[in-house]
């Protein structure tokens, strides 16, 4: 969709109007490049992560532990988006928060690049913290470039911005993955650090083109709130330090003492947030009804992401051990599978946008609920497809690469049906009191889904077993059918939102 944008004239006085980027404020170029390089670093490292965890030259962990670590890491990134948004709103402002986040991410990748298993998990933690801080604030700054929600260029600006995400995600496995798998794992992680370094440099050099609102702290903490926050943070940090020190000194510490609490938090916190909003007595009956409807979407999304995000863990580990990763006799790195989704997103997103517009003009565009249910069914179908290469591998043969491409294709179509709709319905159904927090709530659906995968792995469930894959596939299809069957009830709860 980015290619359809032209260098049109802009309204005088619009931030960055002196110079344009595809007809948009010049600051969009800064944020586009920053996000592209950040996503390059994130998806490059993520493509290597499960492979490094199971590789003999890596940490040589079993597939279950590797999947648990991967799932906990991804769930943490999305869980930390909420406190990341809070820092932007209450402490540093979006611009400073993004700059600090970029530095933390780069430091995390550099830590991963050190040839030591002891520092590896610290590096993962730093990348997760930095990604959470950045994710919630950089999109906010894109919005600051435009004159409110009614600016006709706003939607196009976000389209250009998200193209940067997919460009970075597409290139990362091809470059970082190849170097990590074929040359040296830690050199691959170092390339991820270089990518984030380029993004951070771009942000700092181009920040003069950003809107002044990006430096403003919208709702700064009072002195009393700062003191209270610091006390509570210090208390919880102290408890954690004492507890883990005691475990280490007593010889009882294992990796599960970190993984289990984090996965439980990934399930419990989303539930607590939804319950807190639902029980808020300040919400009127209409808002309460919308939140009841939103819970349907949230649970469905959690199931979707539980399966979808296994494309980077369960499917990747399967491809590493049991797939014939060749095209016309040429063998390619396993991490390259992670480029399939972003290239399909870039190819299919404009097609879907055109289809919805064409159907809308005829009065036949599917409702939000039908799109959501279809996306959920498709992600279930993708795992039914997964049963074929699993059966081939169980027969002692290597599964063809096209089976995995077909799975990723099906999941991508499901994503295009569910993810944009989920973002849209989240903003439409958000109570006014929680307008700025609801996008973080949507991200918590990803947290809940990935945390559930982590819990299953920690419990010893082999996610590459035919029976488990079939159960997950059936769960998604049944959930999608249930959402469709109860669509009228959910529509009634949504009120005027469509």
From TrEMBL:
GO BP of this protein: tripeptide transmembrane transport
Example of a GO MF term: tripeptide transmembrane transporter activity
Keywords: Cell membrane, Membrane, Transmembrane, Transmembrane helix, Transport
Any one annotated GO CC term: plasma membrane
Membrane topology, from the record: Multi-pass membrane protein
Annotated TM spans: 43-61, 67-86, 98-114, 120-138, 159-179, 185-205, 257-277, 289-308, 336-357, 369-388, 400-418, 439-461, 467-486
Subcellular location: Cell membrane; Membrane
SUPFAM superfamilies per UniProt: MFS general substrate transporter
Protein's UniProt keywords contain RNA-binding: no
Family designation: Belongs to the major facilitator superfamily. Proton-dependent oligopeptide transporter (POT/PTR) (TC 2.A.17) family.
Matching NCBIfam families: yjdL_sub1_fam (TIGR00924)
Protein name, as recorded: MFS transporter
